[in-house]
Input
Amino acid sequence: MSATDAATPVVSAFYDRFPYPADPLQDGPPPGYNWRWCVDSAWVAATGALPPPGASGRRAWRILDAGCGTGVSTDYLCHLNPGSSVLAVDISAGALDVARERTRRSGAAQQVGELRIEQRSLLDLAGEGPFDYINSVGVLHHLRQPEAGLKALAGLLRPGGLLHLFLYADGGRWEVHRIQRSLGRLGVGSGSEGMRLGRQLFADLPETNRLRRHHEQRWALDTAAEANFADMYLHPQETSYNLERLMAFVQSAELSFAGFSNPGVWDPARLLGGELLERAQALPDRERWALVEDLDPEISHFEFFLSRGPLQRRGWDHDGALLAAGGIRNRCLWGWPSKELLDPDLMPLSLSSEALALMQALEAAPPGTAIGALPAESSTASATDDTIDASSQRRLCAARELLAARVLLPLASGAA
Output
């Protein structure tokens, strides 16, 4: 008998009524990118370097989209990871109908070696692993037993593989929780009647009411679509976390925390300055994150990477190691090739002429070419010399600029 969570029947029926997310269907590739769904980009964010390619000369990742909903994430996973193998599962037949149509219209299956979209619980995937990368966004917090879901995913992950999760946070959802409880007490249900009365609640509350103001200022646009409103306010099963409970949750599956996938949110520099910032930056990671959690009550979710076994992060402080490394261009850039781009977070980025030229030279060179082996006007030092000549120094400056901007995804020892 297939394994299921106690909440599966009601959650499946809910998403059959309100297929989520409600992103529109379109012909052709999905718009833009999300670097967390480009495994090359995610891998470098977590480990500092890409592994060597397979026999084909490409990294053909084995990817699981656990709880794919209407296929938005699946679509990106296919288009951002060409040649890979993708298995997308969800418990809602209605959502999967949309996912299949979305990926058909986008041509997703033509981008990968294999695409399977199946109605299955993430608890019932024994024998499907191991996967290099598992994406499970907004799923585990809708299980009655999230710990069982996390352990199931951990068992499908290969040693050293990455799991990307998105879970609700207590702090930024306390107003949402109050509305959920209020609608529950009023017995509005989770169908069309609940939708009508849920929207009526916000219309009836006084304009000065904090819950109404918070909704109008922060969530009204996101919940304009019925499926999105229902997912936020009418969902029959939801769990949220604070940082302490989140870390205990991770440990329950014997997984290692490999970093936030929105690290800027957890940087105290966006909240503090001067002496207070210096004190914050001197704190251990967990204490620094807890400080940010306390100071920013708008954090509504956690998004992060986990690994099966601790990861060794590759650093590039040593000049010789960087010159000996190869690299590829991050797919998640808007406007390439140009000095004026949008970076992986869709923020404006200006590259120097030297950085642009280096990245273009690396792209034009044979796969596996080391940065230090690129043609140059003159060079009297090898990539491993302690004394680096002027030409290599210019390359180093350009390479470090590209690394900091996440344009360059490095490959250790020149591996392609």
